[in-house]
Amino acid sequence: MSDELIAQREEKLRQLREIGVKPYGGKFPRTHSVSKLRENFDRLAELKEEVAIAGRVMLMRMHGKASFADLRDETGKIQIYVKSDIVGERTYRIFELLDIGDFFGVKGSLFKTKTGEMSILVRELTLLSKSLRPLPEKWHGLKDIELRYRRRYLDLIFNEESRKVFEARRKIISITREFLNERSFREVETPMLQPQAGGASGRPFSTRADALEMELFLRIAPELYLKRLLVGGMERIYEINKSFRNEGLSPKHNPEFTMLEVYTAYADYKDMMQLTEELFQEIARNIFGKLKFTYRGEEIDLTPPWRRITFSNAMKERFDVDIEKEGVENLKKKLKEAGVKLKGEKVARSQLVKLLADLLTSSSPTFITDYPVEFCPLAKRKADAPELTERFELFMCGFEIANAYSELNDPREQKERFMKQAEGEKERIDEDFVMALEYGMPPAAGLGIGIDRLVMVMTGSSSIKDVILFPQLKATEVL
RNA sequence: GCCCCCAUAGCUCAGUUGGAAGAGCACCUGACUCUUAAUCAGGGUGUCCCAGGUUCAAGCCCUGGUGGGGGUACCA
Questions:
Q1: HEC states along A101-153?
Q2: Distance in angstroms (rounded) separating the CA atoms of residues A286 and A273
Q3: pTM score, two decimals?
Q4: ipTM of this model?
Q5: Per-residue pLDDT tens over the stretch A353-396
Q6: Which nucleotide is at minimal CA–C1' distance from A142?
Q7: Whether A145 CB is under 7 Å from strand B
Q8: A3-135 carries CATH number 2.40.50.140
């Protein structure tokens, strides 16, 4: 069937070529986009000005010798009216050989039909691209979730909601850059191909550089390179880019994801809390025009200051353990009793994250602060409580969305922490990074924000796949 | 990785107790010079995801697989 529909279109293509039509055109100068044309419709119609627009035909209403079609470009759609006695028999024949999905350009004048529909009376018609495959149906569109991910172009053609999500994503990233640039942060790019993948836990993807005869890893985080730039004297920097983790997929996890990392010299994690609050407010004001919105039925309020709970208080509430008095060993025991998996002697961070997320009753943003040092190999200890670190994680809508700390800048302690972390595992220590610290890194605060998750929250998306244009799926044969 | 759910025409979906594969849109043929999800007349175009099995008979029951969704584990 699909083959038959394609064959029918190929037959039309053949017939078009037979009458001298080039079915894959080139440059077509447009006088207006559809939305601009609509905005200035009355004036243009009165001046009887000839306009030229181009787009994809979405609907055709054939009426013998005079027909209507809806032409759509990125900005909107408009009706065109093609009359045989105006365009001539040959052009009208070409029009009859067109299919829904074809791109063409038209020149003509503007008029309103008797029902008031803004329309173009076509004088000249140019085929720009012949579509060989039938598009999804005009009314129900494309709903199949797998096809929407695999053939995102069809999703974008048919689902306004999807287009809105990606426009919101663009806006959020753009606002974030403006926000940071205005505050004198400089955007940098650091390697995605790294000889050693550090700065987070998580399994890396590995690859090989043939010319260098070496194994390389796709980065799991940019952190250790951004800190090398702090050593290099850059005081306010950020990077928005992909990181890659060779782990399972879920509605909150895609193997490649976009992260923002920000570093400020001479600041601490509390400054980053404020920065996070301000950034999210800036975004919400732009997207919603206010600080309150809903995520899948849950009320979210970004009015500052956001709720803050220390990690110890959260644990006290949940497990009746006072880690500040009893130390972290007792917590581990309680966690084990509660069925939390331990990774060797270490508490798996993901379990902790889940535990904390479950603990929060509100979907509004909450900072959990002051994590025990053993969960934070790169964070600075609290001066008055050396078993804890100057760190926060931001939870919102049931998931972790940001992570920040005052950066550890003592090279000897950093090496020790790396060694402790590597115990019993095949991880290597990043000696090159330790060397950089040995040259001296200013005290600094760092912040990481999961951009995809932030977009999820701001667009009401329940799956990360809905905010990534081409989410990772298994390869299949083309049907 | 494990558990649960889903897969029927190009698209959106029905399909009863196991008894001759359906609808709307799209598409094809014809009519139609202001329609707008155009209308009217006619046409069903299919590897019922794949491979086996049970049965006189399988879209439907059973086993295995593939792809997707959700949960769970690893992870952000």
A1: CCEEEEEEEEEECCCCCEEEEEEEEEEEECCCCCCCECCCECCCHHHHHHCHH
A2: 20
A3: 0.94
A4: 0.92
A5: 888 888 787 889 999 999 999 889 999 999 999 999 999 999 99
A6: B11
A7: yes
A8: yes
Instruction: Give the SS3 label for residue A35.
Output: helix
CATH class, range A156-466: alpha beta
Query: What are the pLDDT digits (tens) for A259-311?
Result: 999 999 999 999 999 999 999 999 999 999 999 999 988 899 999 999 999 99
Q: Could you please report the per-residue DSSP string of A382-427? A: ETTEEEEESEEEEEETTEEEEEEEEBP--HHHHHHHHHHHHTTS-P
- CB burial of A187-202 (b: ≥16 within 10 Å; e: otherwise) equals ebebebebebbbbbbe
Asked if the Cβ of residue A336 lies within 7 A of any atom of strand B, the reply is no
A294: tokens are 């809903």
Report domain extents, chain A. 3-135, 156-466
Residue A257, CB, strand B, below 7 Å: yes
- A7, amino acid identity: A
